[in-house]
Specification:
Blueprint lengths: L10 E6 L5 H14 L4 E5 L4 H5 L8 H10 L1 E4 L13 H8 L4 E7 L14 E7 L9 E3 L5 E3 L5 H17 L4 E6 L7 H13 L6 E6 H10 L6 E4 L1 H14 L9 E3 L4 E3 L18 H13 L3 H17 L5 H4 L7 H10 L33 E11 L4 H11 L5 E8 L2 E4 L11 E8 L8 H12 L3 E11 L2 E2 L9
Parallel strand pairs: 1-2, 1-3, 3-12, 5-10, 8-9, 8-10
Antiparallel strand pairs: 4-5, 4-11, 6-7, 11-12, 13-16, 13-17, 14-15, 14-16, 17-18
Helix pairs in contact: 1-9, 1-12, 5-6, 7-8, 9-10, 10-12
The structure holds NADP nicotinamide-adenine-dinucleotide phosphate (NAP).
NADP nicotinamide-adenine-dinucleotide phosphate binds next to loops.
């Protein structure tokens, strides 16, 4: 990412103070950044609660989008999504609008922060895919009874995030990258990350690579977190385990985060707006200060980044000032006094805690636009007919079979929430009104045309109400769809 500068040579950055505790944390961090001698020109922008309340449903006004388009660099506080305004998080909107596909969430044991893990030298980074997965938020009510959320995972998205994880490991002198996925259950989507990881890992023989199932990863993180170095994972898994990893080192008050894209980078802490602490000058700003360190490193201001990181470590080690999440909010140092102490300590170093040597991360440059993977052949072997019916499976099955008699397809099976219920194999399934009928070409090698499918819709649609169709594709001879539970 090329750094944009003002006419006077200062680094340009868009500054979004955010909601709740955001403005206090951001003010603390920007004071420290400026005191460390960084020449930076902030473009002050708005997003979040105030913007929703002005009637802008995205929570992000055009002026903010324009500013980010100019600066390509954002430092922000957390944004709240007020109940009753808008339906999308303004944070997610910002991350997605600017394709910041890599969410970097480092956690490291800090001096003087008592946790059950103190002394075990936790120092790991969660690299979370940031724009795909269930967080694309593509949701529908399939029937009044059943809601659906589409989990979209692309090969290019996987390749980008996996490469970032390996590049980050190299840039930070780390030795291991673990891919955490639920590929044992979701073979197409989560499996895409695992397969891509295994392919890309071959290009990084200097880095040890392994795979861990995400639920075991959560278990291992609580049991023996020091075994991890870099963990790469999908969006929702990463969101959850990075809150978990924050807790290992003292909580969200200490957990920084960066959203990196090839064009734009957005720096914000892991935590949210914690409204109950807003405006009280008691909140722990460390996460946002360390987020500032990540930003400075990203823009190549490595010396200033080191200086601030050393000052934070030295301040915590001295133990003269204590944050509310550590000692309780009735006896803590105020946010502003804590900030003053760090500024006083700029130039000091911790006696015991080292700061890593960092190099800038080399972000992957993959071809833009569609067509990253091109198939040699695609055949439509059938289609899944998602429908609403109040019949039980033993009546629905024959009804569907009668309606499609003489059509190019036959009924292979019916499932209810992924479990095969027709033909019955004796499963005990509490069915609801949304079924999937798997209709396969009668001729097993046939490639169904759209007019074949429309013919079936016309025959079946008047009997069993459909709301969604999914073509069953064979891509390069491989099934591009999974079986239902219990389907042979
Ligand atoms: P949250 O704001 O992160 O707060 C959850 C809890 O974490 C707080 O109650 C507090 O724990 C602790 N905490 C958070 N920040 C802290 C800090 N700087 N220092 C010390 N402790 C801190 O999560 P939430 O309550 O679920 O969400 C509140 C709002 O923030 C929601 O509107 C949500 O959508 C939004 N949010 C925004 C972002 C973002 O902008 N990136 C991220 C997450 C959530 P104790 O109660 O134990 O003291």
């Amino acid at each position: 990412m090329a750094v944009r500068t003002s006419a006077s040579g200062k680094v340009l950055a868009s500054l979004i103070p955010g909601d709740g505790i955001g403005p206090e944390c951001v003010a603390s961090a920007t004071r420290i950044i400026e005191a460390a001698g960084v020449k930076i020109e902030w473009e002050h922008c708005e997003a979040g609660e105030g913007v929703f309340k002005k009637g802008i449903p995205s929570g992000v006004p055009q002026e903010t989008i324009d500013s980010i388009g100019r600066t390509r660099l954002v430092f922000k506080g957390p944004l709240g999504t007020p109940i009753g305004y808008g339906e999308k998080s303004a944070n997610v909107t910002l991350r997605k609008l600017f394709e910041t596909y890599a969410n970097i969430r480092p956690v490291r044991e800090l001096p003087g922060i008592p946790t059950p893990y103190a002394g075990r030298n936790i120092d790991l980074v969660v690299v979370r895919e940031n724009v795909e997965d269930l967080y694309a938020g593509i949701e529908h009510m399939q029937t009044p009874e059943v809601a659906q959320c589409l989990k979209l995972i692309s090969r290019k998205g996987c390749e980008k995030i996996v490469r970032v994880a390996f590049e980050l490991a190299r840039a930070e002198g780390r030795r291991k990258v673990a891919c955490a996925s639920k590929s044992n259950i979701m073979k197409m989507t989560e499996g895409m990350l695992k397969r891509t990881f295994e392919a890309v890992a071959k290009e990084y023989p200097d880095i040890e690579s392994s795979h861990v199932i995400i639920d075991n990863c959560a278990h291992q993180l609580v049991k023996k977190p020091e075994q991890f170095d870099v963990i790469v994972t999908t969006n929702m898994n990463g969101d959850i385990i990075s809150d978990l990893t924050s807790a290992l080192i003292g909580g969200l008050g200490f957990a920084p985060s960066a959203n990196l894209g090839n064009e734009v980078a957005i720096f914000e802490a892991v935590h949210g707006s914690a409204p109950k602490y807003a405006g009280k000058n008691v909140i722990n700003p460390t996460a946002v200060i360390l987020t500032g360190v990540l930003m400075l490193r990203h823009i190549g201001q490595l010396e200033a980044a080191q200086k601030i990181e050393h000052a934070v470590l030295a301040t915590l080690e001295e133990g003269k000032v204590k944050t509310g999440d550590v000692v309780g909010y009735d006896k803590c140092t105020s946010t502003s006094a804590y900030t003053d102490e760090i500024i006083k300590n700029l130039g000091k170093r911790s006696a015991k805690f080292q700061v890593r040597d960092y190099k800038p991360i080399r972000l992957p440059e993959l071809p833009a636009g569609p067509g990253f993977v091109k198939a040699r052949s695609v055949r439509i072997a059938g289609f899944d007919y998602f429908c609403q019916s109040f019949l039980l499976p033993d009546r629905l099955g024959p009804t569907v079979e009668r309606a499609i008699e003489g059509s190019p397809v036959k009924l292979k099976m019916i499932s209810n929430r992924g479990t095969k219920v027709y033909p019955s194999a004796g499963a005990i399934t509490d069915c609801n009104d949304q079924y999937r009928c798997r209709l396969m070409a009668r001729d097993p090698g046939a490639d169904l045309s759209d007019s074949d499918i429309i013919d079936v819709l016309q025959r079946l649609g008047s009997t069993v109400r459909w709301m969604h169709l999914e073509k069953l594709q064979e891509i390069d001879g491989e099934a591009g769809f999974t079986k239902a539970q219990g389907e042979d």
